[in-house]
Design a protein that fits this description.
Blueprint (H helix, E strand, L loop, with lengths): L11 H12 L6 E6 L3 H25 L13 H13 E3 L3 H4 L4 E9 L9 H17 L1 H11 L2 H5 L11 E3 L1 E2 L2 E2 H22 L9 H41 L2 H10 L1 H4 L2 H25 L2 E9 L6 H14 L7 E7 L1 H10 L10 H6 L4 E4 L5 H12 L11 H9 L45 H16 L14 H20 L7 H13 L1 H21 L11 H14 L5 H4 L5 H11 L4 H8 L7 H23 L5 H5 L3 H10 L4 H9 L4 H6 L2 H8 L3 H12 L20 H7 L4
Parallel strand pairs: 1-8, 1-9, 3-7, 7-8
Antiparallel strand pairs: 2-4, 5-6
Helix pairs in contact: 1-2, 1-19, 3-6, 5-10, 5-13, 6-9, 10-12, 13-14, 16-17, 18-19, 18-20, 19-20, 21-22, 21-26, 22-33, 28-29
């Protein structure tokens, strides 16, 4: 890990606030990958997100001056009666006005996968939790009425048709007459006909002759039958409606799913998934109906936690459910997948029948995640504060303890960000004593406190639109050349640009040029492995600077392409170990053209973007760090035995090899053999050591000395160094790594 300045790292609340503002901008459905290796930090970020999103929704409603105003979230008796009448006699009309409502309501649903880990189908528990939360929020009666009198499977299966009319409601009609009018007319007619009969009864037939009596009695019989029919048909209809309503209130979808899970024949077939899909479509339509009634948009934020603790098969089932059931084009769901990315990738990689040989766990996740958001690692100050809290008597970090508070307690007077559980509604900053402590912060803080509402959202939107314009306009920039044709990748880039700009504005950082922001996000999305390699190399150089300063101080003006070019040979040597990561990267020639010609980012730029880069999965960088660390152990062995470095050997020519052999006092015959076979440094490093020894015809002692000097110490149980390179069947891996002209 790099030696960072504590003031360079924004607090967790800043990340939560930036993500919450981004989620309010993006269109649903969206699936967020909230990545962190600390579950406590994930929980705190989720809590802060809920606070900020609810506060923003409340602020919007307070500023709303349009009439009619949105209805109260806690309905009154009149609102309930009005809703029932709308459900029974009206259908909503989708217009441009009600589809672009500014007011919004968020319904947060927390799904802890670990609590449902005992279920055979974990995704079914997720759907049950979601259905139950919607019922509790809006009411079982309302949902049951919607299921009976509003939902039409055939009509609601298609997309909403936007109409250009001022009204939001249209009466249900039978023929050309509204149903409510027919019921009212029937009710009044029944009263007019039946009330006199009930009050005065039928006329007495005594005093008439038998013939008249029979004729009139038959007429009165018809009249009685008509009266019974008038009363009976509505009664039967009302009874049927009541029975259906009771059935939906008692036997809801949760019970159907449980019965399906208990029946192995059903759960193993498509029947259960089809039923669940229909239920999810019904819930979506119900939420759209409630949007028109409440006069606000409604978004359901599904927070999925502890998924990385479950078995691979169940994890894949939940991911498939998110991708299949919750990603309809008109779905109002925002899915937040809060996990440790390294554990998740390992579990998905082990799942049977999940990924093909040409696929990887990262590719599988990329098809689902539309907004990757990685919370950077804890700063040194944060780790010290958390450790201090544990020393003071807590065996572990409680979920109720804000890591933001722990972090800010160690920032001291330079920069202080306070966040309390009792008052979670504002983000506060204090001006640093020395502005030089954060060299890339140029905006002066005018006040001691910074409230979330004080952000200049017009400036944020302007920067965002400007960044987008450099991608869409081929005349202004070359960025369109580098974006992928995959629509999921495009959505990730759009969302990541928004959240990057939001973090910069929230952290009071001077944002770079909009084109550079867009270029950086594209660089991270298209070449995550190569960029992670550059990050790791820069961090290692910074650590070396701390060890032996000022001999090898890091040059912040050094271009990232030069960094990559300097260490590309090392990456080519370990290419076989990181082949899965490299396959995620785009065209290597485009990568070279991107950094070498069009966007010449430097190490200083990398430091500016480092803690605003949310769409980079740090699990790749961590794996590269482990591989590079193991190689450093070998280099330590070289130093102990005074061996030549791999880079030195690689640049040696045949005459240089002969000079080294002379220094080691090898016989002249070996020097002649080296000249006859044109053995240079590349030959020594890249050929099989067994073949090399056979050509040189050295004794065991001579070969050991030669190997230690040129190849370093290779344990006997470790495969030869040449074996770590890609085999002959895949030679292009080495070529594409080193780039052109190397």
């Amino acid at each position: 890990m790099a030696i960072e300045k504590v003031t360079d790292i924004p607090s967790d609340n800043v990340y939560a606030y930036a993500l919450s503002k981004t989620l309010m901008k993006v269109s649903s459905p969206v699936t967020v990958g909230l990545y962190s290796d600390c579950h406590n930090r994930i929980n705190m970020v989720l809590k802060n997100i809920e606070v900020h999103m609810n506060e923003e929704a409340k602020r919007r409603e307070e500023k709303c001056n349009k009439k009619p105003r949105p209805r109260s979230i806690t309905p009154s008796i009149s609102d309930v009666l009005s809703l029932i009448l709308r459900l029974l006699f009206y259908r909503p009309v989708w217009t441009e006005q009600n589809q672009n409502m500014k007011n919004i309501r968020y319904l947060f649903v927390r799904f802890s996968a670990w609590h449902f880990a005992g279920s055979d189908l974990l995704w079914a528990g997720l759907i049950m939790q979601l259905s139950k939360a919607i019922q509790n929020s809006f009411g079982k009666l309302q949902l049951g009425l919607f299921r009976i009198v509003q939902h039409d499977k055939e009509k609601d299966a298609g997309k909403k048709k936007i109409e250009d009319i001022p009204k939001n409601w249209r009466s249900k009609k039978l023929g050309c007459i509204p149903i409510w009018a027919l019921i009212l007319i029937g009710f009044i007619g029944s009263l007019v006909l039946l009330v006199p009969l009930v009050m005065f009864g039928f006329p007495d037939l005594k005093g008439h002759n038998e013939g008249e009596k029979v004729e009139e009695s038959s007429g009165y019989g018809v009249l009685e039958g008509f009266a019974i029919a008038v009363l009976g048909v509505p009664a039967v209809g009302a009874l049927r409606f009541i029975l259906l309503l009771l059935k939906n209130l008692i036997f809801n979808q949760d019970l159907k799913i449980r019965q399906g899970l208990d029946n192995n024949k059903v759960s193993q077939q498509l029947g259960l998934m089809h039923e669940v899909r229909l239920e999810m479509r019904l819930l979506c339509c119900f939420i759209h109906f409630m949007e028109i009634f409440e006069r606000r948009r409604i978004r359901v934020v599904l927070e999925i936690t502890s998924l990385d603790r479950c078995t691979p098969k169940k994890i894949v089932g939940v991911l498939d459910a998110i991708n299949i059931l919750l990603s309809d084009s008109e779905s109002p769901f925002i899915s937040v997948l809060a996990v440790d990315p390294e554990v998740l990738v390992r579990q998905v990689q082990q799942a049977e029948d999940c990924i093909t040989k040409r696929d990887s766990a990262y590719d599988f996740l990329d098809r689902i995640i539309t907004l990757p958001f990685t919370v950077p690692p804890l700063s040194n100050a944060s780790k010290s504060s958390v450790f201090e809290n544990i020393v003071l008597g807590q065996s572990e970090i409680s979920e109720n303890i804000s890591l933001v508070e722990a972090e800010t307690s160690a920032l001291g007077d330079q920069q202080r960000t306070s966040f309390s559980v009792e008052d979670e509604c504002s983000v506060k900053y204090s001006e640093p004593e020395e502005e030089q402590a954060i060299p890339f912060i140029a905006k002066k803080r005018n006040t001691e406190t910074f409230s979330a509402a004080e952000l200049n959202f017009e400036e944020v939107d302007k920067l965002t639109e400007s960044a987008f314009s450099y991608i869409t306009s081929r005349d202004k920039s070359k960025l369109s050349t580098y974006i992928s044709g995959d629509t999921m990748s495009m959505r990730r880039i759009i969302n990541s640009i928004r959240v990057t700009i939001m973090i910069m504005e929230t952290s009071k950082l001077e944002p770079p040029h909009p084109e550079n922001i867009a270029a950086w996000v594209i660089l991270v999305d298209r070449w995550p492995c190569r960029l992670s390699w550059i990050l790791q190399c820069v961090e290692d150089d910074q650590q070396s600077d701390e060890i032996c300063r000022p001999i090898c101080a890091v040059d912040n003006t050094k271009k990232l392409w030069d960094v990559f070019n300097c260490y590309s040979l090392e990456l080519s040597i370990i290419a076989y170990s990181v082949e899965n990561f490299l396959e995620r990267d785009g065209d290597p020639e485009l990568f070279e053209m991107f950094l070498k010609n069009h966007f010449k980012f430097t190490v200083e730029d990398l430091e500016k973007f480092k803690f605003c880069t949310m769409n980079l999965n740090y699990s790749i960088k961590n794996e590269l760090a482990r591989i590079r660390g193991s190689r450093r152990l070998k280099r330590a062995g070289r130093s102990a035995f005074q061996s030549l470095s791999a880079r030195t050997v690689m640049n040696m020519e045949t005459k240089d090899i002969c000079q080294e052999l002379s220094k080691l006092k090898f016989p002249e015959k070996y020097l002649e053999t080296v000249r006859e076979n044109f053995i240079d440094g590349k030959t020594i490093l890249l050929s099989d050591p067994k073949d090399l020894r056979q050509v040189l015809q050295m004794t065991l002692g001579e070969w050991t000395s030669f190997k230690i000097h040129f190849l370093g110490v290779i344990p006997s149980n470790h495969p030869a160094q040449a074996k770590t390179l890609p085999n002959a069947t895949n030679p292009e891996v080495v070529i594409c790594l080193s780039g052109k002209g190397q």
